[in-house]
Write a structure and sequence with these properties.
The structure is a homodimer of 201-residue chains.
Chain A: E1 6-9, H1 14-22, E2 28-29, H2 43-61, E3 67-78, E4 81-83, H3 89-99, E5 103-116, E6 119-133, H4 138-146, E7 167-172, H5 174-178, H6 182-194
Parallel strand pairs in A: 1-2, 1-3
Antiparallel strand pairs in A: 3-4, 3-5, 5-6, 6-7
């Protein structure tokens, strides 16, 4: 009997969508509003918790049937402090000023919820990537902040855009900084993707 | 007096073109056939030499006028051995088999040749990025090799495509693995870009 499992990305982020497409996983997007509740201050645990809440909310929306739900959350951490998305341009300037010339960490947490018939399973993990920035002049910071690019991005920068000018290097998965640890995600999901009989994998 | 400097990318690689666009540098592409001559076996020196030969050949084609020529060359090194582009699919399979589950190095050498009036200047550098691969099954290797993606790529893989599935992480500049160390390139070229009065920078 031919079998079809739905793969659901529980995120509206165009960057996560692109990364999942890049690694050849066919999926649909389904997003649910989540009241985010965080019990930890440790970045790795925070992103795991938040990805779990997103995944649960979306699984709750799904009708019966086999499904793999993929949810993720990303934060930037600098010297123990968590940076989310900037509130406005001035806030973006402050974040960029604090990151310039230094090394920070990007954490992306992922939750995979798998349901097949009566069987359910869950995997939760996070990946950490260190990012080294070149120094930036005040003019470079203000010009980038004014471009509007920082506003929907944790830490106020997008590594995959013009900001690559200021990135000296990283340690870890690059795609984790973009918003989804594509390598780890594929390796963790592989067993469930392969049990699928569609022949896509 | 308004001044206009030509910026020339001496490479036909679509990936280098995309990276230069990404960091907001306006340029034209001009490629010259080069008889590659290498005097070193050290990867960092090899890519510097080859990028220099490409840059010189293209500067030689340019008429009078101010110009910045950017040339690059990329190789993959595994345990002291240099891997270029695979000759065919079977060769790609061998390269991928040797890289799977291990760490290798990607070297990109860059030469910048700058000419402004009577003044000329040159900068040559290379960046090294370590790349860690997950183990791969024989089926995964053969399937990727058969996709044709490896054939125009040093080391037989493209980190920016579906191959991201097998990349555990890197140490260094990600764009250096794609073919151009965008961050270092921008930092090195900045002084010359800024002396330009077009207001693009």
């Amino acid at each position: 009997m031919k079998h079809r499992m739905k793969i659901i990305l529980a995120s509206a982020s165009p960057r996560r969508k692109e990364l999942l497409e890049q690694i050849g996983i066919p999926f649909e997007v389904l997003v649910s509003h989540v009241e985010e509740k965080v019990t930890s201050v440790r970045p790795g645990q925070v992103v795991e918790e938040l990805s779990g809440q997103k995944a649960e909310a979306v699984l709750g929306l799904l009708e019966e049937g086999d499904a793999l739900v993929i949810a993720a959350d990303t934060v930037v951490a600098l010297e123990g402090r968590i940076l989310g998305k900037p509130a406005d341009t001035e806030n973006a300037v402050e974040m960029l000023r604090s990151l310039a010339g230094k090394t920070h960490q990007v954490y992306t947490g992922v939750t995979l919820l798998y349901r097949r018939g009566e069987e359910t399973a869950r995997k939760v993990f996070h990946e950490k990537t260190k990012v080294h920035f070149y120094p930036m002049t005040e003019e470079e910071i203000r010009s980038y902040a004014a471009s509007g690019e920082p506003l929907d991005k944790a830490g106020a920068y997008g590594i995959q855009g013009i900001f690559a000018r200021y990135v000296r290097g990283i340690e870890g998965d690059y795609n984790n900084v973009v918003g989804l640890p594509a390598g780890r995600l594929y390796q963790e999901a592989k067993e469930w993707l392969e049990s699928e009989e569609s022949g896509n994998f």
